[in-house]
Specification:
A two-stranded antiparallel ribbon has the order 1-2. The protein has helices at residues 19-26, 47-51, 69-74, and strands at residues 38-39, 42-43. It has 75 residues and is mainly alpha-helical. The mean pLDDT is 88. The longest helix is centred in the N-terminal third of the chain and has 8 residues, at 19-26.
């Protein structure tokens, strides 16, 4: 799959289809068991470099209660 800049995509599928796992591999939270994934030409195996250019907000998340929305997004 090749995602083009400026386009909007949806990742949909049944429960257990692997959506969350894919997102965790793309964002370097889980190692890939096989294959290759690149983010802006950077292999996800180079975790630090990928994390410097990508953000991930899962469906279920928590934040510090004393933060403003701006502070949370900046964090």
């Amino acid at each position: 799959m090749h995602v083009t800049e400026g386009e909007i995509y949806g990742l949909i599928g049944k429960n257990g289809a692997g959506k969350t796992t894919l997102m965790k591999v793309i964002t370097t939270l889980l190692p890939a068991s096989s294959g290759d994934i690149h983010v802006c030409g950077i292999p996800v195996k180079e975790g630090k470099n990928v994390r410097s250019i990508i953000g991930y907000l899962p469906q279920d998340f928590s934040m510090y209660g004393n933060m403003t929305v701006y502070e949370a997004m900046d964090y």
